[in-house]
Amino acid sequence: MSMVNLRVRPHVCRLLLFSFLMVVVSSCSGLTRPEEVGMSSERLKQLDRLMAECLRQKYFPAAVIVVGRKDKIVFRQAYGHSQWVPAPKPIKIDMIFDLASLTKPIATATSIMILVERGQLSLWDKVKDYVPEFSVYVDKNGEKGEEARLYHLLTHTSGLPAYTDAQEVAKTYGSPCPTETLVKHIAALKKEFAPGQDFRYSCLGFITLAYIIKKVTGQDLAAFASENIFKPLEMKRTSFKPPLSWKEHCVPTEVIDGQPLIGVVHDPLARLQGGISGNAGLFSTGDDLAIFARMMLHQGEFNGRRILSPLSVKRMTEIFPDVLFSGRGLGWDVSSVYSSNRGDLFGRSSYGHTGYTGTSMWIDPETETFVIFLTNRVHPDDKGVIIPVRSRVANIVAAAIIHP
Protein backbone atom coordinates (compact mmCIF):
# COMPACT_ATOMS: atom_id res chain seq x y z
CA MET A 1 0.00 0.00 0.00
CA SER A 2 1.40 3.42 -0.86
CA MET A 3 1.92 5.98 1.83
CA VAL A 4 -1.07 8.16 2.58
CA ASN A 5 -0.84 11.85 3.43
CA LEU A 6 -1.62 12.08 7.11
CA ARG A 7 -0.68 15.72 7.57
CA VAL A 8 -2.67 16.86 10.61
CA ARG A 9 -4.71 19.94 9.81
CA PRO A 10 -4.96 22.88 12.26
CA HIS A 11 -8.68 22.39 12.81
CA VAL A 12 -8.22 18.81 14.04
CA CYS A 13 -7.97 19.86 17.70
CA ARG A 14 -11.55 21.10 17.48
CA LEU A 15 -12.60 17.66 16.22
CA LEU A 16 -11.64 16.24 19.57
CA LEU A 17 -14.36 18.36 21.16
CA PHE A 18 -17.33 18.07 18.88
CA SER A 19 -16.97 15.54 16.07
CA PHE A 20 -19.81 13.06 16.15
CA LEU A 21 -17.49 10.63 14.38
CA MET A 22 -15.27 10.26 17.39
CA VAL A 23 -15.67 9.27 20.99
CA VAL A 24 -12.62 9.49 23.20
CA VAL A 25 -12.66 7.33 26.30
CA SER A 26 -9.97 7.85 28.89
CA SER A 27 -9.42 6.17 32.20
CA CYS A 28 -7.20 7.66 34.88
CA SER A 29 -7.34 4.44 36.90
CA GLY A 30 -3.91 2.86 37.00
CA LEU A 31 -2.34 5.54 34.82
CA THR A 32 1.00 7.14 35.61
CA ARG A 33 1.89 10.67 34.52
CA PRO A 34 4.26 10.30 31.58
CA GLU A 35 6.70 12.75 33.17
CA GLU A 36 7.25 10.32 36.06
CA VAL A 37 8.89 7.87 33.63
CA GLY A 38 10.70 10.36 31.44
CA MET A 39 8.01 10.99 28.83
CA SER A 40 6.18 14.10 27.70
CA SER A 41 2.41 14.38 28.13
CA GLU A 42 2.30 17.18 25.61
CA ARG A 43 4.05 15.08 22.97
CA LEU A 44 1.78 12.10 23.58
CA LYS A 45 -1.22 14.34 22.87
CA GLN A 46 -0.16 14.19 19.23
CA LEU A 47 -1.77 10.73 19.26
CA ASP A 48 -5.16 12.38 19.84
CA ARG A 49 -4.63 14.69 16.87
CA LEU A 50 -3.47 11.85 14.63
CA MET A 51 -6.43 9.63 15.56
CA ALA A 52 -8.87 12.50 14.96
CA GLU A 53 -7.51 12.91 11.44
CA CYS A 54 -7.64 9.15 10.77
CA LEU A 55 -11.26 9.00 11.89
CA ARG A 56 -12.12 12.07 9.84
CA GLN A 57 -10.74 10.30 6.77
CA LYS A 58 -12.51 7.09 7.79
CA TYR A 59 -9.38 4.97 7.78
CA PHE A 60 -10.96 2.76 10.47
CA PRO A 61 -14.00 2.94 12.75
CA ALA A 62 -12.26 2.49 16.11
CA ALA A 63 -8.86 2.55 17.74
CA VAL A 64 -7.42 1.73 21.15
CA ILE A 65 -3.91 2.83 22.08
CA VAL A 66 -2.09 1.72 25.23
CA VAL A 67 1.45 2.92 25.91
CA GLY A 68 3.67 1.77 28.73
CA ARG A 69 7.14 2.62 29.96
CA LYS A 70 9.25 1.39 32.86
CA ASP A 71 6.45 -0.94 33.99
CA LYS A 72 3.87 1.87 34.09
CA ILE A 73 0.91 2.62 31.84
CA VAL A 74 1.21 6.23 30.69
CA PHE A 75 -1.40 6.44 27.92
CA ARG A 76 -4.69 4.59 27.51
CA GLN A 77 -7.27 5.90 25.09
CA ALA A 78 -10.10 4.70 22.87
CA TYR A 79 -11.33 6.54 19.80
CA GLY A 80 -14.28 6.39 17.44
CA HIS A 81 -17.00 3.80 17.06
CA SER A 82 -16.75 0.07 17.52
CA GLN A 83 -18.84 -0.35 14.37
CA TRP A 84 -20.40 1.59 11.53
CA VAL A 85 -22.68 -1.22 10.33
CA PRO A 86 -25.56 -1.77 10.90
CA ALA A 87 -25.54 1.31 13.19
CA PRO A 88 -22.74 3.28 14.87
CA LYS A 89 -21.82 2.30 18.43
CA PRO A 90 -19.27 4.10 20.59
CA ILE A 91 -16.04 2.26 21.35
CA LYS A 92 -15.16 1.42 24.95
CA ILE A 93 -11.61 1.16 26.24
CA ASP A 94 -12.00 -2.45 27.39
CA MET A 95 -13.53 -3.85 24.22
CA ILE A 96 -12.18 -7.06 22.67
CA PHE A 97 -10.43 -7.07 19.29
CA ASP A 98 -9.77 -9.85 16.80
CA LEU A 99 -5.96 -9.88 16.97
CA ALA A 100 -5.44 -11.74 13.67
CA SER A 101 -1.71 -12.48 13.24
CA LEU A 102 -0.75 -11.21 16.69
CA THR A 103 -1.86 -14.75 17.50
CA LYS A 104 1.42 -15.96 16.00
CA PRO A 105 3.87 -14.56 18.58
CA ILE A 106 1.55 -14.28 21.58
CA ALA A 107 -0.06 -17.73 21.52
CA THR A 108 1.72 -20.00 19.04
CA ALA A 109 5.39 -19.04 19.31
CA THR A 110 5.19 -18.59 23.09
CA SER A 111 3.64 -22.05 23.43
CA ILE A 112 6.33 -23.58 21.23
CA MET A 113 9.07 -22.01 23.36
CA ILE A 114 7.45 -23.28 26.56
CA LEU A 115 7.67 -26.79 25.09
CA VAL A 116 11.28 -26.17 24.08
CA GLU A 117 12.07 -25.15 27.67
CA ARG A 118 10.43 -28.34 28.94
CA GLY A 119 12.50 -30.49 26.60
CA GLN A 120 9.45 -31.65 24.67
CA LEU A 121 10.57 -29.98 21.43
CA SER A 122 13.74 -28.68 19.83
CA LEU A 123 13.88 -25.87 17.30
CA TRP A 124 16.04 -28.15 15.16
CA ASP A 125 13.47 -30.94 15.06
CA LYS A 126 12.39 -31.76 11.53
CA VAL A 127 8.83 -30.80 10.70
CA LYS A 128 8.52 -34.28 9.18
CA ASP A 129 9.03 -35.81 12.64
CA TYR A 130 5.55 -34.48 13.53
CA VAL A 131 3.97 -34.22 10.09
CA PRO A 132 5.26 -37.17 8.02
CA GLU A 133 3.49 -35.84 4.93
CA PHE A 134 5.59 -32.64 4.90
CA SER A 135 7.20 -32.57 1.47
CA VAL A 136 10.59 -31.10 0.59
CA TYR A 137 11.51 -28.52 -2.00
CA VAL A 138 12.41 -29.89 -5.43
CA ASP A 139 14.32 -27.64 -7.82
CA LYS A 140 13.99 -27.47 -11.62
CA ASN A 141 16.59 -30.20 -11.98
CA GLY A 142 14.70 -32.57 -9.71
CA GLU A 143 17.16 -32.11 -6.84
CA LYS A 144 15.57 -32.31 -3.41
CA GLY A 145 16.23 -29.72 -0.73
CA GLU A 146 16.88 -30.34 2.95
CA GLU A 147 14.14 -31.07 5.47
CA ALA A 148 12.47 -28.04 7.06
CA ARG A 149 13.01 -27.55 10.81
CA LEU A 150 10.71 -26.01 13.40
CA TYR A 151 12.74 -22.80 13.43
CA HIS A 152 12.05 -22.46 9.71
CA LEU A 153 8.32 -22.40 10.44
CA LEU A 154 8.79 -19.81 13.21
CA THR A 155 10.86 -17.51 10.97
CA HIS A 156 8.83 -17.94 7.75
CA THR A 157 11.77 -19.51 5.94
CA SER A 158 10.40 -23.04 5.43
CA GLY A 159 9.51 -22.69 1.75
CA LEU A 160 5.77 -22.84 2.37
CA PRO A 161 3.59 -20.48 0.34
CA ALA A 162 1.93 -17.58 2.11
CA TYR A 163 -1.60 -19.01 2.19
CA THR A 164 -3.99 -21.47 0.62
CA ASP A 165 -7.54 -20.97 -0.62
CA ALA A 166 -9.96 -21.70 2.23
CA GLN A 167 -12.90 -22.16 -0.12
CA GLU A 168 -11.05 -24.75 -2.16
CA VAL A 169 -10.01 -26.59 1.00
CA ALA A 170 -13.64 -26.56 2.19
CA LYS A 171 -14.83 -27.97 -1.13
CA THR A 172 -12.33 -30.81 -0.87
CA TYR A 173 -12.41 -31.64 2.84
CA GLY A 174 -15.61 -30.06 4.15
CA SER A 175 -16.35 -27.23 6.54
CA PRO A 176 -15.40 -27.13 9.33
CA CYS A 177 -12.13 -28.79 8.41
CA PRO A 178 -10.14 -30.52 11.18
CA THR A 179 -6.71 -28.97 11.74
CA GLU A 180 -5.04 -32.34 11.15
CA THR A 181 -6.63 -32.58 7.71
CA LEU A 182 -5.70 -29.01 6.83
CA VAL A 183 -2.10 -29.58 7.96
CA LYS A 184 -1.78 -32.65 5.75
CA HIS A 185 -3.04 -30.55 2.84
CA ILE A 186 -0.49 -27.84 3.70
CA ALA A 187 2.29 -30.41 4.04
CA ALA A 188 1.72 -31.64 0.49
CA LEU A 189 1.79 -28.17 -1.09
CA LYS A 190 4.67 -27.45 -3.44
CA LYS A 191 7.44 -25.63 -1.59
CA GLU A 192 8.59 -22.37 -3.13
CA PHE A 193 12.25 -22.60 -2.07
CA ALA A 194 14.59 -24.73 0.02
CA PRO A 195 14.41 -24.20 3.81
CA GLY A 196 16.52 -21.31 5.00
CA GLN A 197 17.09 -19.91 1.50
CA ASP A 198 14.43 -17.20 1.37
CA PHE A 199 11.75 -15.43 3.42
CA ARG A 200 8.05 -15.79 2.68
CA TYR A 201 5.60 -14.67 5.35
CA SER A 202 3.34 -17.70 5.75
CA CYS A 203 0.25 -18.35 7.80
CA LEU A 204 0.57 -22.01 6.84
CA GLY A 205 3.71 -22.52 8.91
CA PHE A 206 1.97 -21.35 12.07
CA ILE A 207 -1.08 -23.50 11.40
CA THR A 208 1.38 -26.40 11.25
CA LEU A 209 3.00 -25.31 14.54
CA ALA A 210 -0.36 -25.32 16.30
CA TYR A 211 -0.94 -28.87 15.11
CA ILE A 212 2.48 -29.88 16.46
CA ILE A 213 1.61 -28.37 19.85
CA LYS A 214 -1.51 -30.52 19.99
CA LYS A 215 0.36 -33.61 18.84
CA VAL A 216 2.97 -33.18 21.59
CA THR A 217 0.69 -32.10 24.46
CA GLY A 218 -2.71 -33.56 23.64
CA GLN A 219 -4.18 -30.06 24.03
CA ASP A 220 -5.22 -27.75 21.24
CA LEU A 221 -3.54 -24.34 21.09
CA ALA A 222 -6.45 -22.60 22.80
CA ALA A 223 -6.33 -24.88 25.85
CA PHE A 224 -2.54 -24.97 26.10
CA ALA A 225 -2.11 -21.19 25.76
CA SER A 226 -4.90 -20.52 28.25
CA GLU A 227 -3.41 -22.86 30.83
CA ASN A 228 0.21 -21.84 30.40
CA ILE A 229 0.07 -18.18 29.35
CA PHE A 230 -3.21 -16.33 29.77
CA LYS A 231 -4.48 -17.69 33.09
CA PRO A 232 -1.12 -17.36 34.89
CA LEU A 233 -0.85 -13.76 33.66
CA GLU A 234 -4.51 -13.07 34.55
CA MET A 235 -5.27 -11.97 31.00
CA LYS A 236 -8.98 -12.37 31.68
CA ARG A 237 -10.28 -11.08 28.35
CA THR A 238 -7.95 -13.09 26.09
CA SER A 239 -9.23 -16.22 24.37
CA PHE A 240 -9.84 -18.11 21.18
CA LYS A 241 -13.55 -18.52 20.36
CA PRO A 242 -14.89 -15.87 22.76
CA PRO A 243 -17.92 -17.08 24.74
CA LEU A 244 -21.34 -15.64 23.94
CA SER A 245 -21.20 -13.58 27.12
CA TRP A 246 -18.34 -11.60 25.56
CA LYS A 247 -20.10 -10.88 22.27
CA GLU A 248 -21.39 -7.44 23.20
CA HIS A 249 -17.84 -6.47 24.16
CA CYS A 250 -16.28 -7.68 20.86
CA VAL A 251 -15.39 -5.16 18.16
CA PRO A 252 -16.94 -6.18 14.81
CA THR A 253 -14.79 -6.82 11.76
CA GLU A 254 -15.80 -7.37 8.14
CA VAL A 255 -19.40 -7.70 7.02
CA ILE A 256 -19.79 -11.10 5.37
CA ASP A 257 -23.09 -12.34 3.93
CA GLY A 258 -24.76 -9.21 5.26
CA GLN A 259 -23.62 -9.62 8.87
CA PRO A 260 -20.53 -8.25 10.62
CA LEU A 261 -18.28 -10.83 12.24
CA ILE A 262 -18.56 -10.30 16.00
CA GLY A 263 -16.51 -12.60 18.19
CA VAL A 264 -15.93 -14.79 15.12
CA VAL A 265 -12.41 -14.86 13.69
CA HIS A 266 -11.93 -12.92 10.47
CA ASP A 267 -9.18 -15.09 8.96
CA PRO A 268 -10.74 -17.63 6.54
CA LEU A 269 -8.46 -20.58 7.39
CA ALA A 270 -8.88 -20.02 11.12
CA ARG A 271 -12.65 -19.80 10.64
CA LEU A 272 -12.56 -23.00 8.58
CA GLN A 273 -10.97 -24.79 11.56
CA GLY A 274 -13.68 -23.60 13.93
CA GLY A 275 -11.80 -20.60 15.29
CA ILE A 276 -8.66 -22.17 16.77
CA SER A 277 -5.57 -21.79 14.63
CA GLY A 278 -1.89 -21.03 14.96
CA ASN A 279 -1.97 -18.12 12.53
CA ALA A 280 -5.05 -16.24 13.82
CA GLY A 281 -8.06 -16.62 16.10
CA LEU A 282 -6.95 -14.95 19.32
CA PHE A 283 -9.11 -12.17 20.78
CA SER A 284 -7.94 -9.73 23.43
CA THR A 285 -8.02 -6.18 24.84
CA GLY A 286 -5.45 -3.43 25.02
CA ASP A 287 -5.15 -3.93 28.76
CA ASP A 288 -4.48 -7.66 28.49
CA LEU A 289 -1.89 -7.10 25.78
CA ALA A 290 -0.20 -4.57 28.05
CA ILE A 291 0.21 -7.36 30.61
CA PHE A 292 1.82 -9.57 27.97
CA ALA A 293 4.14 -6.76 26.86
CA ARG A 294 5.22 -6.11 30.45
CA MET A 295 5.93 -9.84 30.86
CA MET A 296 8.21 -9.71 27.83
CA LEU A 297 10.00 -6.60 29.14
CA HIS A 298 10.42 -8.41 32.48
CA GLN A 299 12.28 -11.18 30.65
CA GLY A 300 9.42 -13.67 30.80
CA GLU A 301 7.95 -12.94 34.25
CA PHE A 302 5.13 -10.73 35.53
CA ASN A 303 3.67 -10.37 39.01
CA GLY A 304 5.58 -13.39 40.26
CA ARG A 305 4.42 -15.65 37.41
CA ARG A 306 7.15 -16.82 35.05
CA ILE A 307 5.97 -17.75 31.55
CA LEU A 308 9.33 -17.92 29.76
CA SER A 309 12.97 -17.95 30.77
CA PRO A 310 15.08 -14.85 30.09
CA LEU A 311 17.08 -16.74 27.48
CA SER A 312 13.92 -17.77 25.64
CA VAL A 313 12.78 -14.15 25.49
CA LYS A 314 16.23 -13.17 24.18
CA ARG A 315 16.23 -15.85 21.48
CA MET A 316 12.66 -15.08 20.40
CA THR A 317 13.29 -11.36 19.99
CA GLU A 318 16.59 -11.32 18.12
CA ILE A 319 17.02 -12.18 14.45
CA PHE A 320 17.55 -15.94 14.31
CA PRO A 321 21.22 -16.45 13.39
CA ASP A 322 20.69 -19.14 10.75
CA VAL A 323 18.32 -16.91 8.74
CA LEU A 324 19.69 -13.40 9.32
CA PHE A 325 18.33 -12.27 5.94
CA SER A 326 14.77 -12.78 7.18
CA GLY A 327 14.79 -10.07 9.81
CA ARG A 328 12.69 -12.38 11.99
CA GLY A 329 12.99 -13.73 15.47
CA LEU A 330 11.12 -16.79 16.70
CA GLY A 331 7.56 -15.66 16.09
CA TRP A 332 8.45 -11.96 16.39
CA ASP A 333 9.28 -9.43 13.70
CA VAL A 334 12.57 -7.64 14.36
CA SER A 335 13.54 -6.00 11.09
CA SER A 336 11.64 -7.45 8.14
CA VAL A 337 9.68 -5.77 5.38
CA TYR A 338 6.61 -6.10 7.63
CA SER A 339 7.98 -4.11 10.59
CA SER A 340 6.59 -0.70 9.64
CA ASN A 341 5.03 -0.49 13.11
CA ARG A 342 8.55 0.07 14.50
CA GLY A 343 8.44 3.58 13.09
CA ASP A 344 11.64 5.51 12.47
CA LEU A 345 12.93 6.11 15.99
CA PHE A 346 12.86 2.88 17.99
CA GLY A 347 16.16 1.00 17.96
CA ARG A 348 17.17 -2.31 16.42
CA SER A 349 16.76 -4.25 19.66
CA SER A 350 13.02 -3.61 19.51
CA TYR A 351 10.47 -6.07 18.11
CA GLY A 352 6.77 -6.55 17.48
CA HIS A 353 4.10 -7.86 15.14
CA THR A 354 1.00 -6.79 13.25
CA GLY A 355 -2.41 -8.29 12.51
CA TYR A 356 -4.41 -8.10 9.27
CA THR A 357 -7.53 -6.79 11.02
CA GLY A 358 -5.62 -3.64 12.01
CA THR A 359 -3.85 -4.63 15.21
CA SER A 360 -0.21 -4.22 16.23
CA MET A 361 2.25 -4.29 19.11
CA TRP A 362 5.80 -2.97 19.36
CA ILE A 363 8.14 -3.49 22.33
CA ASP A 364 11.46 -1.72 22.91
CA PRO A 365 13.67 -3.18 25.67
CA GLU A 366 16.22 -0.38 25.23
CA THR A 367 13.78 2.27 26.48
CA GLU A 368 11.49 -0.16 28.37
CA THR A 369 8.58 1.01 26.25
CA PHE A 370 5.68 -0.69 24.47
CA VAL A 371 3.01 0.51 22.07
CA ILE A 372 -0.27 -1.34 21.57
CA PHE A 373 -2.39 -0.04 18.69
CA LEU A 374 -5.67 -1.84 17.98
CA THR A 375 -8.12 -1.01 15.20
CA ASN A 376 -10.79 -2.82 13.21
CA ARG A 377 -9.74 -1.41 9.85
CA VAL A 378 -11.45 -4.34 8.04
CA HIS A 379 -14.90 -3.09 9.14
CA PRO A 380 -17.09 -3.04 7.20
CA ASP A 381 -15.60 -3.81 3.78
CA ASP A 382 -11.89 -4.65 4.27
CA LYS A 383 -10.86 -1.33 2.72
CA GLY A 384 -9.46 0.54 5.71
CA VAL A 385 -6.01 2.15 5.91
CA ILE A 386 -3.56 1.12 8.61
CA ILE A 387 0.05 0.55 7.43
CA PRO A 388 1.18 4.20 7.24
CA VAL A 389 -0.64 5.03 10.49
CA ARG A 390 1.25 2.42 12.53
CA SER A 391 4.63 4.00 11.91
CA ARG A 392 3.31 7.44 12.82
CA VAL A 393 1.89 6.15 16.09
CA ALA A 394 5.25 4.60 16.94
CA ASN A 395 7.10 7.81 16.05
CA ILE A 396 4.89 9.91 18.30
CA VAL A 397 5.43 7.56 21.23
CA ALA A 398 9.17 7.31 20.66
CA ALA A 399 9.49 11.10 20.35
CA ALA A 400 7.67 11.47 23.67
CA ILE A 401 10.58 9.72 25.43
CA ILE A 402 12.56 12.77 26.55
CA HIS A 403 14.73 11.00 29.14
CA PRO A 404 15.86 7.73 27.56
The poorly predicted ranges are 10-28
Number of helices: 13
Percentage beta strand = 5-15%
| CATH class division of one domain | Alpha Beta
Termini separation (Å)? 33 Å
Specify the CATH architecture of one domain.
Answer: 3-Layer(aba) Sandwich
Large-scale geometry: globular
CATH fold naming of one domain: Beta-lactamase
User: How would you name the CATH homologous superfamily of one domain?
Assistant: DD-peptidase/beta-lactamase superfamily
Rounded to an integer in angstroms, the radius of gyration calculated over CA atoms is 21 Å
| Largest sheet, strands/sense/barrel | 7 strands, antiparallel
Q: What is the arithmetic mean of pLDDT? A: 94
Protein structure class: alpha+beta
Please write out the topology.
Elements lengths: L11 H7 L6 E2 L14 H4 L1 H11 L5 E8 L2 E12 L5 E2 L6 E2 L4 H15 L32 H5 L11 H8 L5 H10 L14 H15 L3 H13 L5 E2 L14 E2 L2 E2 L7 H5 L9 E3 L1 H12 L3 E2 L2 E2 L3 H7 L34 E5 L3 E6 L4 E7 L11 H13 L5
Antiparallel strand pairs: 1-3, 2-3, 2-14, 3-4, 5-9, 6-9, 7-8, 10-11, 12-13, 13-14
Helix pairs in contact: 1-3, 3-13, 4-8, 4-9, 7-8
